[in-house]
Amino acid sequence: MKTDGADQIRKALANYVDTLKLEFTQGMILPTVNGVQKEQTQSKPKIDLQTKIATSQLPSQTKSVGVKIPTCKINLKDEFMTSPEELYKIFITEELVQAFTHASAAVEATKGGKFRLLDGSVSGEFLELVSDQRIVMKWRYKSWPAEHYATIKLTFLGKNDGTELQVECRGVPLGEEDQTKAGWQRYYFNGIKQTFGYNVRLF
After folding, report:
1. How many CB atoms lie within 10 A of CB 127?
2. In angstroms, rounded to a whole number, what is the distance separating the alpha carbons of residues 89 and 43?
3. pTM
4. What are the tens digits of pLDDT across the range 85-114?
């Protein structure tokens, strides 16, 4: 009986000591004999922390994408009395952009390069640049909802003695179609023709 009682007391004391060690070392990294147990208990807070971080970041990630708004697609085209090579250069050369918009502009003509036109009223990023053939870009008016961009695809097609420029705009906010069309007509099409003399209209 005495030996059984002593064994039970030893076991109870050992459990008590282990419990004290566990409580004391939670959240701490200490090399001890019971390292395996501590790694197991510490793994739970780490997983919980990562889960909390991931879930807490979800709202901010959705915010950065911008608000989901109803959008539409518009298509424009015009013809310029110049070659596709010359017309392409006008869209990617900072000095030429400043010339036809009659305002300050910043243009980084590389994939991923940013641009700002008309004193910051228009901004975006180049997604694809295929020399003399195609430009794809993220594009927005300053007045649009924050972080919302349309995708603009410019296609340069040699036609007769000139170039047909086809403009496809995807993701234009509903209600902004007329302003977007008018802006492209005034600041791009008419601006380029008046500045460089490529004055011919497609019927």
Report:
1. 17
2. 58
3. 0.65
4. 999 999 999 999 999 999 999 999 999 999
Burial of 87 by CB count in 10 Å (0-12 exposed, 13-18 middle, 19+ buried)? buried
Backbone Cα Rg of the chain: 32
Q: How far apart are CA 68 and CA 63, in angstroms?
A: 10
Distance CA(54)–CA(47), nearest Å, equals: 10
Output the six-digit token pair for 5: 């009682």
Residue 180: exposed, middle, or buried by beta-carbon count in 10 A (0-12, 13-18, 19+)?
A: buried
Picking from 162, 181, 164, the residue whose alpha carbon sits closest to that of residue 172 is: 181
CA dist., res. 10 & res. 19, Å (int): 14
Phi and psi (nearest 5°) for 187? Answer: -85, -30
172 within 8 A of 148, measured Cβ to Cβ: no
Domains located in the chain, CATH noted: 2-65 (no CATH), 71-196 (3.30.530.20)
